[in-house]
Amino acid sequence: MSEKTIFKRIIDGEIPANVEHDDEHCLAFHDVSPQAPTHVLVIPKKEIASVDAISQADAALLGHMWVVIGKIASELRLGDGYRVVVNCGKDGGQTVDHLHFHILGGRSLSWPPG
Ligand code: 5GP
């Protein structure tokens, strides 16, 4: 069996995180290395390795996560705008093989990304 990802270890309570939201389906916590004044990661509790591993069976879960993302943005007062980023695979810059949405806000974000 492959080793647990760092995010699975956070879900399982084996390592601490600054949790912003926790429900039956997903967990949101502040990134340990923030790239903006607000940098929160939203992850499914189900182990999905990346966008490439999403299936039709995950549609309701993904819809729920988008609702949670909007709720977190509102709670963290990101009314001036924010960005939601999902890195996928090596060229996409994904470093943790557990699906996650980055919520970045609190400053003006440039475009295009690097
Ligand atoms: P990726 O590069 O895969 O899109 O994003 C992974 C993110 O996870 C990075 O922004 C990184 O800072 C964050 N991260 C990695 N390990 C930990 C950890 O142990 N705790 C928290 N809170 N964030 C982590």
Report the portion of residues in β strands: 15-25%
CATH top level class name: Alpha Beta
Low-confidence stretches: none
| Structural class based on helices, strands and sheet pairing | alpha+beta
Order of helices and strands: HEEEHEHE
The spatial strand order of the largest sheet comes to 1-2-3-5-4
In short:
The protein is of the alpha+beta class and 114 residues long.
Structure report:
- By secondary structure, the protein is an alpha+beta fold.
- It has one domain (6-105): HIT-like (HIT family, subunit A).
- The protein contains three helices and five strands; from the N terminus they run αβββαβαβ.
- The protein has helices at residues 6-11, 59-75, 89-92, and strands at residues 19-22, 26-30, 38-44, 82-85, 101-105.
- Strands 1-2-3-5-4 form a five-stranded antiparallel β-sheet, covered by helices on one side.
- It is globular, with a radius of gyration of 14 Å.
- The N and C termini lie far apart (35 Å).
- Guanosine-5'-monophosphate binds at residues 6, 17, 29, 31-33, 41, 87, 93-96.
